[in-house]
UniProtKB/TrEMBL annotation:
Pfam families: ABC_membrane, ABC_tran. GO terms for molecular function: ABC-type oligopeptide transporter activity; ATP binding; ATP hydrolysis activity. The lineage of its organism: Bacteria, Bacillati, Actinomycetota, Actinomycetes, Micrococcales. This is ABC transporter ATP-binding protein. Belongs to the ABC transporter superfamily. Siderophore-Fe(3+) uptake transporter (SIUT) (TC 3.A.1.21) family.
Length: 607
């Protein structure tokens, strides 16, 4: 999982490289952004013209006791300019808001699609909060920067430069004085950039970790409450939240120190300018109007100068957000369809594993592979139980069949064809899986069960399939829920009991009408009577469907035609339950431990 770590102040990705990657997304909306930019620039220029009118008012009208009509005309011009400025600001928003929001949505959808494509191994490494914050807050920041930050940074830079030029036209000494003030600001800005970027990266990563913590504690609320671990979890959250707070404060301090320079230097220069300007007016080298205009310009550009500091901060945070976004987008998926996928010659329903080896990516090279050399043939239409001690790699082996993980070596064949040669979507349509930890979606029972149902079915066929799957899985309880099978089952199906969730997940696997069914201990949460009923029904539907079923209970083993015993990363023996019982000591040991587990579970349940 990606954890927030202190970041080197030297940026590994230059701003230009990040902007280059953003360019293809921005390109289609550039004309509208440009129009918005022109409006913003126009508003900035109009704001600068107002001091010119003031100078003219002081020099030409008030100075020579101008008639009141001229005063009124000047006032009308200032008011009209104010109106034009407001209108241009309004137009800027009109031009940029919609395309920026559109770009945010487009990038978010692309990000989501990419997450769906990334392999299970990626999701096992990354915290959900990190992905959540990258898809939500990071992209919102980008929208705000595009719609406001980026163009205002340019506009305010242009406004400040234009203001400086105008100052020079009124008095070159005062203009030069103001210009010299930009030197310490530039030096400070250089240092600020590195410090702020590092703090910004750390705070965005920490916010992602915090989101993961919230997600995990909400998800695991039952466990936390049951174990009375609320205060402990709270402590952990508290310390994470405090770390984020400290980073935010450090970030704000860095910005505040930069803004101090950005505000204090021009103000000091203005004080000096006042002394020099008054002296110039006294000796007649500067008009009163020019001095008024100088101060009015300084007042107008004081906002943009300060704003540039804030906008620089916003730009750096957005760059960090983009880097975080592209980090995920750069993650590659090596479990993909081949360029030229082939379909198997006969869909005979066989599943074979030849010399299959597998080690989890993070342990590869340093640990013994979980699966060392698996050889297994499951005949067409056969139900095979997979048995082994806990942690022996049964679930891992199942994941290799629909290519949720990739074999490190060896081959897995479905219908006689290597799974790597299949079109991935087609392969996963052929195979349905029910996992040990059932995952349901916060939608209706109907949608959950029919998740993998063939899309070509009519409404009546879908209903018939739903009824059949619920019947096989003994999930008739669904009909007596308030809205029957159209009842919303709450986030992750937590409004259902463990056994009910498991039956819905089993019904979902059955409704996918697969030719290969992979079941990871699908009956573990059922009581003995329900398991018996499900087993009976499963026997009927499993005829003709090749099934590999992980068994943790002797009753599940009874479902199978043959049993494969997994031991030390190899298939130790294959045969009927009775044959293995009489010939294999390790099998007797495993079955005895399964019996113990069952007795313990039954004992716990009856207590
Ligand atoms: N994502 C993973 N990354 C690294 N190691 C893993 C991962 N998932 C499982 N393992 C390890 O692989 C081994 C086999 O796990 P697996 O879940 O396949 O066993 P299992 O036989 O299904 O166990 P159980 O009967 O308890 O369900 C275990 O030692 C486990 O710690």
């Amino acid at each position: 999982m990606a954890q927030a770590q202190k970041v080197d102040s030297k940026d590994p990705v230059p701003l230009s490289a990040t902007l280059k990657r953003l360019y293809p997304f921005v390109k289609p909306i550039l004309p509208r952004l440009f129009c918005g930019f022109l409006c913003a620039l126009g508003a900035g220029i109009v704001a600068l013209v107002i001091p010119q009118v003031l100078a003219w008012l002081v020099n030409s009208v008030l100075h020579r006791d101008g008639v009141s009509s001229e005063v009124w005309i000047s006032v009308a011009i200032v008011a009209a300019l104010g109106f034009v400025e407001a209108f241009l600001i309004f137009m800027r928003r009109q031009f940029v808001l919609t395309p920026a929001a559109g770009l945010e949505t487009k990038m978010r959808i692309r990000f989501y699609k990419h997450l769906q494509r990334l392999p299970v191994a990626f999701h096992e490494r990354w915290g959900s909060g990190q992905l959540l914050s990258r898809s939500m807050s990071d992209l919102s920041l980008l929208r705000r920067w595009l719609a406001f930050g980026a163009m205002m940074l340019v506009v305010e830079t242009v406004t400040v430069i234009t203001g400086l030029v105008l100052m020079f036209t009124h008095s070159w000494i005062l203009g030069l004085l103001y210009f010299l003030g930009s030197i310490p600001i530039a030096i400070k800005a250089y240092r600020f950039r590195n410090e702020y970027r590092a703090a910004s990266r750390l705070s965005q990563d920490q916010a992602g970790d915090l989101a993961t913590a919230v997600e995990e504690s909400v998800h695991g609320i039952r466990v936390i409450k049951a174990f009375g671990r609320g205060p402990h979890i709270y402590e952990g959250f508290n310390s994470q939240a405090k770390s984020l707070q400290e980073t935010e404060i450090a970030k704000a301090k860095t910005l505040a120190s930069f803004l101090l320079t950005v505000v204090a230097v021009p103000e000091t220069i203005l004080g000096l300018g006042l002394i020099i300007g008054i002296a110039q007016v006294a000796n007649g080298t500067l008009s009163v109007g020019a001095l008024v205009a100088y101060f009015a310009i300084a007042a107008v550009i004081a906002g943009p100068v300060e704003g540039m500091g804030m906008l620089l901060g916003m730009t750096l945070s957005t760059k960090t957000a983009l880097d975080r976004h592209f980090e995920v987008m750069d993650a590659t998926n090596d479990i993909v369809s081949p360029e030229d996928p082939s379909s198997p010659e006969h869909r005979d329903g066989s599943v074979e594993l030849h010399h299959v080896r597998f080690a989890y990516p993070d342990t590869a090279g340093t640990h013994r592979p979980i699966l060392a050399d698996i050889n297994l043939q499951i005949r067409p239409g056969e139900t095979m139980a997979l048995v082994g001690i806990t942690g022996s790699g049964k679930s891992t082996l199942l994941n290799l069949i629909p290519r949720l993980h990739e074999t490190t070596a060896g081959e897995v064949l479905v219908h006689g064809q290597n799974v790597k040669d299949w079109d991935l979507d087609q392969l996963r349509t052929e195979i349905a899986v029910a996992f040990e930890d059932t995952t349901l979606f916060s939608t209706t029972i109907r949608d959950n069960v029919l998740l993998g149902a063939p899309a070509s079915l009519t409404e009546d066929e879908r209903q018939a399939l739903l009824d059949e799957a619920l019947d096989v899985a003994q999930a008739h309880f669904a009909y007596s829920l308030p809205q029957g099978v159209d009842t919303l089952i709450g986030e992750e199906g937590l409004s259902l009991s463990g056994g009910q969730r498991q039956r819905i997940a089993l019904a979902r696997a059955i409704a996918a009408r697969p030719s290969v069914l992979v079941l990871d201990d699908p009956l573990s949460a059922l009581d003995v009577r329900t398991e018996e009923l499900v087993t009976e029904k499963l026997r009927e539907v499993l005829t003709g469907t090749t099934t590999l079923i992980v068994a943790h209970r002797p009753s599940t083993v009874m479902l199978a035609d043959r049993v494969a015993l997994l031991r030390d990363g190899r298939i130790d023996a294959v045969g009927s339950h009775t044959h293995l019982l009489s010939t294999n000591e390790h099998y007797r040991f495993v079955i005895a431990s399964l019996d113990d587990e069952e007795l313990t579970t039954a004992g716990e349940a009856s207590r």
